[in-house]
Description:
Blueprint: E1 4-11, E2 19-27, E3 30-37, E4 44-51, E5 64-70, E6 73-78, H1 82-87, E7 90-95, E8 104-109, H2 132-135
The site of copper (II) ion has 6 residues, from strand 4 and strand 7.
Amino acid sequence: xxxxxxVPVGERDGSGxxxxxxxxxxxxxxxxxxxxxxxPAGADMPAHVHLGQCNGDVTPQPKYxxxxxxxxxxxxxxxxxxxxxxxxxxxxxIHKSNEELNVVVAxxxxxxxxxxxxxxxxxxxxxxxxxxxxxxxxxxxxPAPGGAASPAPSQP
Length: 156
Ligand SMILES: [Cu+2]
């Protein structure tokens, strides 16, 4: 298997922040996520893996927190394999600042068009408008071993 994948990071709402995200599988359940983006000087931008799609819905609670993007760079190891990130619809959202977590300034789609958004306890359903800051502190969820997700048939 190709141990490393590169996917684009795209701007949201005209932020002008774009770049590249590299996923490198380090072990059976270990992946390094490296983000490299253009960004305003001095910015300190939280980043998380979320379930969802950049051009659709993204669950408010992070699935895996990542190191803040500082000087345009963030490197984090997370306890999951690359194929698992790609089979289910995962994104990396980059947020404007610690104070403005509800503002997403860039997004990277980790998975491809066949990916599905799973339903269940970890998935959509607990979104409360106006509480995104609180929801971003919910970092406890861990992936279900063996995963209930299976690739969906391609949609038209
Ligand atoms: Cu987030």
